[in-house]
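Priority: medium. Attachment 1 of 2:
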């Protein structure tokens, strides 16, 4: 975990700045300061097609900010969870499987907010790694998934790594800020 400290500091600084930018932009749009009819508050695609450079936007793009934050957060957790041989997306999917197993791919998709085909591809990767087992449900058309013993061991070994990463962020960013961040993200 010592090697993560510089990464945590840089990431924490970036998250705080991104969150503050997002909150300012959100407040602006909610109070009517960002108006789509005002010049410079949106990208005029017709002008772009005519070779014109669009006017600057009145605030940073929330979508771009969140996508960038997501990539950085994923990289941070991927590094923390790497010793168990999976990435954070796989670890998270396995935790979801553990909560509802045996689960159909459709049920799992609803739980993790992904379509069935994407869940199926992700589960097949875990199956090839020996971390889950796929079988048939009562309805032979539906596949069910369960953790293997190796998958349960990955969750057991990975839990303290995940907890350490979570605590490092909480310690660095502060409990109040993390509470605000979770609340803001949950409201999306």
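Attachment 2 of 2:
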């Amino acid at each position: 975990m010592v090697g993560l400290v510089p990464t945590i500091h840089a990431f924490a600084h970036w998250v705080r700045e991104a969150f503050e930018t997002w909150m300012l932009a959100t407040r602006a749009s909610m109070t009517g300061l960002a108006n789509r009819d005002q010049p410079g508050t949106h990208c005029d695609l017709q002008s772009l097609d005519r070779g014109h450079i669009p006017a600057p936007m009145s605030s940073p793009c929330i979508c771009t900010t969140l996508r960038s934050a997501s990539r950085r957060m994923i990289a941070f957790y991927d590094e923390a969870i790497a010793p168990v041989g999976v990435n954070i997306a796989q670890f998270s999917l396995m935790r979801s499987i553990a909560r509802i197993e045996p689960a159909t791919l459709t049920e799992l998709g609803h739980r993790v907010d992904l379509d069935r085909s994407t869940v199926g591809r992700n589960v097949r990767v875990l199956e090839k790694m020996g971390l889950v087992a796929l079988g048939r449900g009562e309805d032979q058309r539906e596949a069910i998934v369960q953790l293997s013993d190796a998958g349960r061991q990955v969750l057991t070994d990975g839990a303290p790594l995940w907890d350490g990463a979570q605590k490092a962020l909480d310690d660095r960013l502060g409990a109040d800020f993390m509470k605000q961040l979770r609340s803001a993200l949950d409201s999306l």
